Amino acid sequence: MVYRTCGMIDAALAGVDTEAEGASREIQKRIEEYAVECSILKVWGSEMLDLVVDHVLQIFAGYGYVEEYPAERAYRDSRINRIFEGTNEINRLIITGRLMKNAMAGKLPLLAAIKRLMDEVMSGPSADAGGEGPLAGERKMLANGKKMALFAAGAASQRYMMALADQQEVMGALADCIMEIYALESSLLRAEKLLAAKATAARQAVVLTQYYAAKAFETIDASSRKVIRAAAEGDMLRTQMAILRRLAKCEPADTIAVGREIAAHVTVAGRYAV
Fold first, then answer.
1. How far apart are CA 165 and CA 157, in angstroms?
2. What is the CATH number of the domain that holds 61?
3. Half-sphere exposure of 240 (CA within 13 A, CB side)
4. How far, in Å, CA of 260 to CA of 189, rounded?
5. Each residue of 24-44: pLDDT tens digit?
6. How far from chain centre, in Å, is Cα 128?
């Protein structure tokens, strides 16, 4: 996900003449176009780090608090990452706010995508978007996750309109959907690239993606429901929740079996290895 974002920024800067007058302003302008992605990296990365170091400390048990063991410093140091460079709460508002602002300004076809989705859900189930292959289920989960996030964003926009920016809890829940979609899509793209190259690491990339997809989809589902519950009531709420349940139908991988395969590979390698 980080490499993907940096690659997009590098591509955006490739055509800038650094010797020209005003080059620094142009560089800044182009980098700012990826403010949403950078906020996603900051929030997702800091919270994933917290999750990892929490597991590390749990493995060390009581020794995890002792300075002579490696878990203590990692556990202590990781906490600051959710605060500096803008708290994660502020960055969540940036993620949703910047996207909605760009949509309102016509820079992002978000409103058109929401309208197409609304037309689609009213016309009944659509064709399977997963295709074939070892990651077919995860591709379908990603496609449906995008629809759930768009549906929730549409419901929130209709309810609050220009006052949406004042609904910080709703903005935060939408940001959680957006982050998980970006992370899952990045994971899928990486795994599919390795599969296409028939790389030896392809199998591990597949199981890691399958494991993460289940977690990501759960977050998208829960966050979308949170937004819908805030944006609708009565018959409208029941109708929109029924639509979400339809979009949430999927067949995630067996995370116990997949998790054991990942653990066995890491144990043999003695480190994280794809």
1. 10
2. 1.20.140.10
3. 29
4. 23
5. 999 999 999 999 999 999 999
6. 22
| Active-site residue (options: 26, 33, 85, 89) | 85
125 CB-contact burial (10 Å; exposed 0-12 / middle 13-18 / buried 19+): exposed
What distance in Å separates the CA atoms of residue 68 and residue 156, rounded to the nearest whole number? 50
Residues in the chain: 274
Helix 168-196 with 88-104: angle, nearest 10 deg: 80
The pLDDT of residue 27 is 93
All residue ranges of the chain with pLDDT < 50 are none
Tokens 């609304």 correspond to: 118
Q: Position of tokens 């203590």?
A: 72
- pTM of the predicted protein model: 0.91
138 is catalytic: no
Q: Report the C-alpha gap between 243 and 248 in whole angstroms.
A: 9
The dihedral through the CA atoms of 155, 33, 215, 202 has a sign that is positive
- Contact residues for 24 (Cβ-Cβ < 8 A; gap 6+): none
- How open is the CA angle 186-188-190, to the nearest 5 degrees? 70
For 258, the domain range is 109-269
Query: Do residues 117 and 162 share a domain?
Result: yes
Express the helix, strand and coil content of the chain in percent, nearest 5 each. Answer: 80, 0, 20
User: In the Cβ-directed half-sphere of 12, how many Cα atoms lie within 13 Å?
Assistant: 15
Q: What pLDDT is recorded for position 56?
A: 94
**What integer pLDDT is reported at residue 240 of this predicted model?**
92
Contact 40, 92 (CB under 8 A): no
Place of tokens 């979400």: 244
Total of domains in the chain: 2
Give pLDDT, residue 108: 80
Residues 6+ apart with CB under 8 A from 54: 75
Domain for residue 125, yes or no?
A: yes
